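pls design
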């Protein structure tokens, strides 16, 4: 077997291997016609390069079928992908470039990188595991495989999963940012009702509506072995959160109903029980955390009565009254 650390490839060869690696996630072997279109290179040139890579035992090329990576070719492609994605993290996080700009520049920088530079850059960035788009960064010497994601709504209660953001809607991205949740964050699913899922991340609990949980991508985690003491502590914490969740649901029996959020006076506190309406307006409100079970407080109201400012989950939001009227709440006895 070849030692991939000893192989020096031209930038063109690297480009071919990475492209085949990426396209193999959808079709394998990769037809040369698709490869040529993707690289914007003539089929004749693609055929010549694939034959050369086949002679180097980096790909397996079958005429009229296509190309697939050998284990050595896969290792080299993963190495270049690692360099590429580390550069993406640097360009987005440290230079504040958009992902599109960072991806374009990383296409060039990956070919001017070596293992030592990539390792130092990785250390400088704090050993990131994911890019801003939720793409996994291979560890040193690791080959990367395609990652299967599932909706958060399908993660079993009592299980853990890793948050992976994929082209999020702006409002949803802001919500996770404010909640301190980023790519690679472990999320524990504590409880779930028909409309709401109770979660724990970074030592804090929060709730998501079912409609939002269905749009959040997660990577399932294989449970790790832990000590009896750790299991006991985890079970006690989760049981405590579940009891709290059930207690809050039971509290509805001791609540006094009011018509909607627009009727709540300044300083008034309440629990959201439902969000009516449809379309983009309703979805925007739920994306901002206005979901059943969330506690809200009216902070101030404009002189003419519109808009109103509320506090929810530690941050402030401003709503028009025609939006607030569709949010139905229940006052606690304290009000």
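designed seq:
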């Amino acid at each position: 077997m070849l030692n991939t650390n000893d192989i020096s490839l031209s930038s063109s060869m690297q480009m071919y291997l990475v492209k085949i690696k990426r396209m193999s996630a959808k079709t394998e072997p990769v037809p040369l016609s698709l490869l040529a279109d993707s690289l914007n290179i003539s089929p004749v040139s693609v055929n010549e390069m694939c034959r050369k890579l086949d002679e180097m035992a980096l790909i397996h090329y079958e005429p009229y079928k296509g190309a697939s990576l050998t284990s050595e070719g896969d290792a080299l492609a993963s190495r270049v992908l690692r360099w590429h994605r580390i550069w993406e993290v640097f360009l987005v996080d440290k230079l504040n470039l958009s992902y599109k700009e960072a991806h374009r520049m990383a296409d060039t920088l990956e070919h001017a990188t070596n293992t030592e530079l990539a390792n130092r850059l990785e250390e400088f960035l704090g050993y990131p595991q994911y890019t801003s788009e939720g793409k996994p960064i291979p560890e040193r010497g690791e080959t990367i495989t395609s990652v299967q994601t599932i909706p958060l709504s399908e993660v079993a209660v009592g299980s853990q999963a890793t948050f992976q953001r994929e082209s999020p809607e702006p409002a949803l991205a802001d919500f996770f940012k404010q909640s301190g949740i980023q790519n690679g964050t472990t999320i524990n699913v504590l409880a779930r009702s028909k409309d709401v899922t109770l979660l724990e991340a970074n030592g804090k609990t929060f709730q998501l509506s079912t409609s939002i949980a269905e749009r959040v991508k997660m990577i399932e985690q294989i449970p790790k072995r832990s000590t009896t003491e750790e299991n006991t502590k985890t079970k006690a914490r989760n049981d405590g959160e579940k009891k709290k969740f059930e207690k809050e649901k039971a509290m509805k029996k001791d609540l006094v109903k009011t018509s909607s959020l627009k009727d709540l006076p300044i300083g008034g506190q309440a629990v959201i029980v439902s969000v009516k309406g449809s379309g983009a307006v309703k979805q925007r409100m739920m994306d901002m955390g206005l979901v059943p079970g969330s506690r809200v407080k009216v902070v101030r109201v404009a002189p003419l009565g519109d808009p109103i400012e509320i506090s929810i989950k530690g941050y402030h939001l401003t709503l028009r009254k025609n939006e607030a009227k569709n949010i139905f709440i229940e006052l606690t006895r304290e009000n």
